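Listing S7. Sequence submitted for prediction.
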Amino acid sequence: MENILNFISVNQQIIYIVILMVFVGIEVIGRVPSVLHTPLMSGANAIHGVVVIGAIIIMGRAEADNYLALVLGFLAVVLGTLNVVGGFVVTDRMLEMFKKKK
């Protein structure tokens, strides 16, 4: 219990920032019109490519006998790549709706 209280006291500012980010995110997403929700989410999925880069860095720095880090890094790369590709697919489908038909 003392370790948890020590962690909270050391990282108090970061905890406040995360809580504030949650409330701001809920307010921003809640005020987006439903027409713009799909393009906004697909763009956010595309931005998650940072997860793929971070996972590659973690896997590169992990020791060869640290199987947990390697497996979690591999899963992060696979799931992050699916998220990025899905974001681009949804964006492409949304843009196709606005093109003139021949």
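Caption to Listing S7: primary sequence and predicted structure tokens for the chain studied. The chain has a mean pLDDT of 84. The chain has two domains: 1-31, 37-102.
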